[in-house]
Please model this.
Amino acid sequence: MIKGKNALVTGSTSGIGLGIAEGFAKEGVNLVLNGFGNAAEIETLRAGMASKYGVKVLYDGADMSNPGQIEAMMRKAAADLGGIDILVNNAGIQHVAPVEDFPLAKWDAIIAINMSSTFHTTRMAVPYMKSKGWGRLINVASAHALVASPFKSAYVTSKHGVMGFTKTVALEVAENGVTCNAICPGYVLTPLVEMQIPDTAKARGITEEQVKRDVLLAAQPTKQFVTVEQIAGVAVFLCSDAAASITGTNISVEGGWTAH
Ligand code: NAD
Model:
């Protein structure tokens, strides 16, 4: 059903976004990849995905903290592929520190990349989706869109904001065949999580092994990290006919975390 459609996945040069992009490519969906990284490695990734799955794969390095670059990316993607049917807002960063020490620049960057970029892409994507009478807006939020953890004030704020935005947009496009949902992952062992382990250890005065066992997986009753393939499977499901009435909500993929 989604074969031949076009998807743009922000932050898809690594981790969850890359997994979601690959999940769509397997279904025959053309892609725009976005994110940072080594130019040669990104080109290898782009070309490899295109030839492996026989789909068009473009890349745009727009900085998700820059509204002008986001607008340019959305215009170019629509022009190059003929319109974006599936938008996945996934780019995100993290910083762990007590609120009284939280660096101002980190606060601004997290709000811009994790939350405001979702507004800047969505506002550009919605008119085409409405005109086609079909579209899927998928926001990769977090368990931290629903509950909090200490030392993550900017991240938790940004993800709660994404959840509010998801519900609002869902109501606005509900009669147009367009759904808007958030996927709320628990801990997935991607570079974003690996990088926060040392800071969490410092903030809590414990070892990095203790952070993994007693802080991260302590929150997940399954005691297992979620995999990128599991998140990708949910994103593909949200684009199926079976998910057409799922809108304005969150799908938690976090091993029971928020059941506590
Ligand atoms: P990651 O660090 O592996 O990947 C992040 C991606 O975002 C990369 O492609 C990176 O280049 C890109 N990116 C970062 N800043 C950017 C910017 N300014 N402009 C454009 N691209 C930018 O992280 P991940 O764990 O895959 O996280 C992806 C999303 O999933 C984030 O929104 C994150 O908050 C969310 N999430 C992750 C976890 C987890 O445990 N890993 C849990 C819940 C939610």
Residues 11-17, 34-37, 63-65, 90-93, 113-114, 140, 142, 185, 187-188, 190-193 surround nicotinamide-adenine-dinucleotide (CB under 6 Å).
